[in-house]
Structure to design on (193 residues):
């Protein structure tokens, strides 16, 4: 049964592996401050999830799982694009205020490696967006971090959220998104009274 699960990960599990997986020597690691994601792929790794202190934020825990027998899927291997997109966007997406017609509306930003964003965007129910490059200076310019992203406007944000909604999903992320959407929708009403 475990071998069968490993050979056929779900689209949701593949999204987690692409979003959070990294190699350290001959072992694949998945690390997250949210235990939900390592727990979702635990059957594929056939090992246990453990926690350690987060090196970047004192007092915060980080959850890890590692295995020499698991692998990061290629995008050609994705079996369910809605499940893949749900996991990937939960991890690398953010609801953010966008200004349209001088009003704040809920938008979405999705970040990641350029080729992943490009292929993912082709499967989303939206017209393709311009991919932009983001560079951040880290540790007094000792390291320049580079990622890519897209910004999705109000109508497309709703379409993407409706399309990726399903099970499994990290309900705590969806609750945060709902709260952020409510907050953005109320931003312009504060001064209107």
């Amino acid at each position: 049964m475990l071998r069968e699960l490993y050979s056929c990960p779900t689209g949701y599990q593949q999204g987690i592996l692409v979003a959070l997986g990294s190699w350290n020597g001959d072992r694949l690691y998945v690390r997250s401050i949210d235990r939900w994601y390592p727990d979702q792929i635990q059957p594929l790794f056939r090992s246990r999830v453990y926690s350690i202190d987060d090196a970047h934020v004192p007092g915060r825990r980080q959850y890890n799982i590692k295995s020499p027998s698991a692998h990061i899927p290629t995008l050609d291997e994705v079996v369910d694009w809605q499940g893949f997109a749900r996991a990937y966007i939960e991890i690398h997406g953010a609801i953010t205020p966008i200004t349209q017609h001088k009003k704040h509306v809920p938008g979405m930003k999705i970040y990641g490696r350029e080729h992943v964003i490009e292929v993912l965007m082709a499967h989303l129910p939206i017209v393709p967006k311009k991919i932009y490059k983001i560079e951040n200076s880290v540790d007094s310019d000792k390291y320049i971090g580079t990622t890519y992203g897209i910004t999705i406007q109000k109508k497309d944000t709703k379409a993407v959220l409706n399309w990726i909604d399903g099970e499994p999903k990290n309900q705590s992320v969806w609750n945060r998104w709902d709260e952020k959407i409510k907050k953005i929708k109320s931003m312009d009403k504060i001064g209107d009274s």
